[in-house]
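Hey, sorry to bother you again with one of my protein questions. There's a protein on my desk that I can't quite get my head around. No rush at all, and the record is pasted right below.
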Amino acid sequence: MSARLSLFIGILCISIFPVLVRSTPISGVSDAFYRLSLATLLIWPYVLIRRKWNPETLRYWKPITVCGIFFASDIAVWNLSIQYSSATQASLLTNLSPIWVGIWAFLFMPEKPTRYFWLGTALALVGLVLLMGVETFLTLKIDKGFGLGVLSGLFYAGYIIVSKSVLRQLPILSFMTGSMTVSSLYLGGLCWALGEPLWGFDGRIWASLAVQALVCQLLGWFSVSHALQHIAAQRVSLSLLSQAVVTGVLAWLLIDERITAQMIMGGIVVLVGIAITFRRTHGL
């Protein structure tokens, strides 16, 4: 499978996650725990039976632990952001991560962002403003949901940067298994410390959690991890911004969140900005 097709599939799978969280009436931290723990319980038997576990994985336990904590924190904070705001806004804010990834790559990574990346990022951010509404930025209405969304983006960026380096050394399944195990343990401890509910849910909630684990986590992040092995981290992070567009459409179709002509225009601008970053240049 080509890296770009893999990235496209990953974006589709991840895009439904905010809609599921918005319509699943449990704690955002509990939701995150079950998304990661159910996925972990499913992936371990597969990698062991099919002999996909690479013993060399244990040599990289430090960055894998960092990835697991960053990813778990991103999901938990993102879930809370969705519950305090809207599925579309939370997706947009967490996907400010391309800015942080681009700055990190410029300062510390040998693979520097090209001029097309910065041009595409600027255009995508214009689309972001249109999608969220210009008045939000002009009046600086910063509330709890807004702050949590931005914090989620920082965790998101950290995960992408660290996982990119680990995936150069390890197979995808070994990396995902180790990282999700750390995430599950971390979120389990967090749920215990905060006294978050972990049982007593009805069948509809369990079905939503199962879809999150299978589609959003396993299929979605396997596809994104495959793309990260072949595409620059800053390009992947910016491409993931398009999930806000898909989430907006899904939220409109499934949970009746309003979508306007301005949001449609903003989505188009975001996608054009992403397309520009995939152009190649020489010397920059």
